């Protein structure tokens, strides 16, 4: 009888991921939803323009659009960057990906603590600013590729960038949901999910066009950094507006509460 061996290559890895993903159906069907609240909304499909606050929604997703387009210019092509610039093999890059995924898990555990203690500014603006710094450092190392220290710094920057960027996602989603209000939450959730796929398709074409124009990797990654910076600034404006409205709302409630508790 022959011996059965499992070879870990791209095909077997994809099959393992597919099988693990398919098992989620078992857990999904066991989820029980409560009764849906009756919302005051016109169910006519052609009245969708009147059913949502589109100006508010567009303002909320603006930073997400920029960040997702920027991510599409970088994330799918980081492996090509390390292979072309530093000669890093696919197996070595896979090891880096595993380390990064582990750090994403560890960093994500700290998000609730940071959110409660420091608010949105720390968990979104500051954290993403640090991630942008890591991206810029990683990109600039292409200019020093002939030196041995360049790959070390680029690898460290790559390993730190993704966990820092992912840390901001839960807080950013919470901010967007709170900012647009309950009426618009289902639409903002759908748009947030679809934007990544749509923007990455556009970004892939832009990346191909830039490479045909002889743009180097670091130049494309710096374009991503610029888009990230603008997106983070817009997030900062959203946070300031949301917190201002929240304070005003509290200020309107407090006088009534004081009056009710007076002797």
UniProtKB/TrEMBL annotation:
Chain ranges passing through the membrane: 12-31, 56-81, 93-114, 121-141, 147-164, 215-239
GO molecular function annotation: transmembrane transporter activity
Protein name, UniProt field: Major facilitator superfamily (MFS) profile domain-containing protein
UniProt keyword terms in alphabetical order: Membrane, Transmembrane, Transmembrane helix
PANTHER family: NODULIN-LIKE DOMAIN-CONTAINING PROTEIN, TRANSPORTER, PUTATIVE-RELATED
Pfam families to which the protein is assigned, alphabetical: MFS_1 (PF07690)
């Amino acid at each position: 009888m022959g011996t059965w061996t499992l070879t870990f290559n791209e095909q077997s890895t994809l099959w393992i991921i597919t099988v693990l993903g398919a098992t989620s159906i078992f857990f999904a069907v066991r989820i029980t939803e409560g009764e849906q609240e009756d919302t005051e909304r016109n169910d006519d499909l052609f009245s969708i323009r009147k059913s949502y606050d589109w100006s508010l929604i567009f303002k909320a997703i603006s930073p997400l659009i920029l960040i997702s387009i920027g991510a599409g210019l970088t994330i799918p092509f980081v492996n090509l960057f390390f292979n072309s610039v530093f000669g890093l093999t696919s197996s070595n890059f896979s090891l880096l990906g595993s380390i990064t995924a582990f750090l994403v898990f560890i960093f994500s555990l700290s998000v609730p603590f940071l959110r409660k203690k420091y608010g949105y500014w720390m968990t979104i603006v500051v954290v993403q600013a640090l991630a942008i710094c890591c991206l810029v450092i990683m990109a600039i190392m292409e200019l020093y590729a002939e030196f041995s220290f360049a790959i070390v710094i680029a690898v460290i920057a790559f390993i730190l960038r993704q966990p820092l960027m992912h840390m901001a996602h839960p807080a950013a989603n919470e901010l967007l949901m709170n900012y647009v209000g309950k009426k618009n939450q289902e639409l903002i959730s759908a748009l947030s999910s679809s934007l990544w796929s749509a923007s990455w398709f556009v970004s892939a074409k832009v990346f191909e066009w830039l490479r045909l124009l002889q743009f180097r990797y670091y130049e494309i990654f710096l374009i991503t950094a610029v888009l990230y910076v603008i997106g983070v600034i817009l997030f900062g404006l959203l946070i300031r507006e949301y917190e201002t409205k929240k304070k005003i709302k509290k200020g309107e409630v407090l006088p009534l509460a004081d009056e009710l508790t007076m002797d």
